[in-house]
Amino acid sequence: MTPLERLFSLEQFGIKLGLDNSRALLAALGHPEQAWRSIHIAGTNGKGSVAAMVERGLRAAGLRTGRYTSPHLTSIEERVAIDGTPVDAGTFAEVTAHVLGVMDDCLRTGALSVTPTFFEVTTAVAFDIFRRAGVDVAVVEVGLGGRFDATNVLAPAVTAITSIAFDHERHLGHTLPEIAFEKAGIAKRGVPLVVGRVAKEAWTRIADVAADVGAPVIDAHATTTDRIYPPLKLALAGRHQLENAAVAVAVLETWSAVVSPIATAAIVTGLTECEWPGRLEWLRLPSGAELLIDAAHNPAGATALATYLEDTGVAPLPIVIAIMMDKDASGMITPLRRVASRFVATTAAHPRARTAQALADTIGEIAPRIPVQAEPSPEAAVVAATDGAPRAVAAGSIFLIGPLRARLIAAGARRAETKAP
User: Fold this and answer.
1) pLDDT by residue (tens digit) across 247-295?
2) Cα four-point dihedral sign 384, 388, 389, 390
3) Residue 379: enclosing H or E segment and its boundaries?
């Protein structure tokens, strides 16, 4: 079994919230997380976009950067980037083998009482890669929640919460204050906590947690600055990216104030030159049709997608969609039905995916006036959606978007140079 095969075999252990395994494994590795400064980012939506903006700004300021995000679109190496470039497969496999060997030793000696999960080991791999690469700072995205996420072993210089919305309720709670409490668990004594636009009840809970641990809170939308920013166009599309950009600016300005100076020009570069594939990304297919792909995997993401389609004036469009069984299908279909000319339900290649027919039946109940068909093959679903239509959308689970994007590009699709009007 190769190191990667063995790593993926750990997925059988599912999700385990808690820090004991991560602490033990990182201690056995000689605490790689202590070799570099970090910025820790939590939130329901926007974590990846903010991480991309912040990392690009830090890199523009001359710092050697690491970035750890999840899940990946196509290959696991995408999760770990050095200076904006995913680590090469050889390095990832080599470090994974090393970490798995250390894990085995810990299990034999009792330093680990149970086998770590896939995410716990992957996090340790990322942190060790950052140490070996000699990064100055790593931007680390929380995997799930915050308080008991494997990444919460960090002693960051700045923390951030991008947004609070409903997702992963089984693990994080069924109310916004409960979810906010879990995400606010990344707050650390004396470490500035930047908070994006959140509902009042979520803000109150975050503020209470921050006060309890002694973390100063910075409202990303209420801070004042003496910097003068020029007119600019964000690299990432969608009105919701304005919210993410405000968080990224606050994080970078805070880093500049408490760690090392960052010029305004570097912050602007972070906003205007970052990349985050698979999010409101237009592809031109070999057929000539344009396909907008977006990993809108929860109600807030679906609402952002619908708003973008309305803002750009291209709606209504055919929408190819796949949704996991543990996701709120009604909450996702409801905002999308106002921008859909028809739905093509499909199935993502994942054990938790709803079948195309089951999803089509659900859509029929939620949006009975909109035509819907089931097409189990995502590629066939795209063909069906673009039949007679110059533009279409593929959205939903990242387990749909990642593999579909890779296969479409391999078949000749290219990123559209200009977004649809």
Assistant:
1) 999 999 999 999 999 999 999 999 999 999 999 999 999 999 999 999 9
2) positive
3) helix 378-386
pLDDT digits (tens, 9 = 90+) for 306-354: 999 999 999 999 999 999 998 899 999 999 999 999 999 999 988 889 9
* Model-wide pTM > 0.85: yes
The CA angle 29-30-34, to the nearest 5 degrees, is 115
According to the model, what pLDDT value does residue 416 have? 85
Please state at what angle helix 176-183 crosses helix 200-213, rounded to 10 degrees. 30
Tens of pLDDT, residues 93-145? 999 999 999 999 999 999 999 999 999 999 999 999 999 999 999 999 999 88
Supply the DSSP string of 256-272, one letter for each residue.
HHHTS---HHHHHHHHH
* Per-residue b or e along 66-83, where b marks 16 or more CB atoms closer than 10 Å to that residue's CB: bbbbbbbbbebbbbbbbe
Query: In the prediction, which pLDDT does 225 show?
Result: 83
- What residues are paired with 41 via a beta bridge? 141, 160
* Contact status, residue 196 vs residue 244, Cβ threshold 8 Å: yes
Domains of the chain: 3-272 (3.40.1190.10), 281-415 (3.90.190.20)
* Cα dihedral 18, 22, 27, 33 in deg (nearest 10): -110
Alpha-carbon torsion (388, 390, 393, 394), positive or negative: positive
**C-alpha distances out from residue 235 to 50, 165, 193, 212, Å:** 12, 24, 25, 37
Neighbours of 330 (CB within 10 A): 12
Distance spanning both ends of the chain, measured CA to CA: 49
Q: Which residues contact 231 (CB under 8 A, 6 or more apart)?
A: none
Rounded to the nearest integer, the mean pLDDT of the chain is: 94
Outline where DSSP puts E strands in 261-334. Answer: 281-284, 290-294, 317-322
64, HSE (Cβ side, Cα atoms, 13 Å): 11
Q: What is the 3-state secondary structure of 10-54?
A: HHHHCCCCCCHHHHHHHHHCCCHHHCCEEEEEECCCCHHHHHHHH
**Which ranges of 148-276 would DSSP assign to H, the alpha helix?**
169-172, 176-183, 200-213, 240-258, 264-272
Tell me the backbone φ, ψ of residue 321, rounded to 5 degrees: -145, 140
Cα–Cα distance measured from residue 388 to residue 226, given in angstroms and rounded to the nearest whole number? 53
Q: What is the rounded CA–CA span in Å between residue 173 and residue 121? A: 25
In contact, 142 and 42? CB cutoff 8 Å:
yes
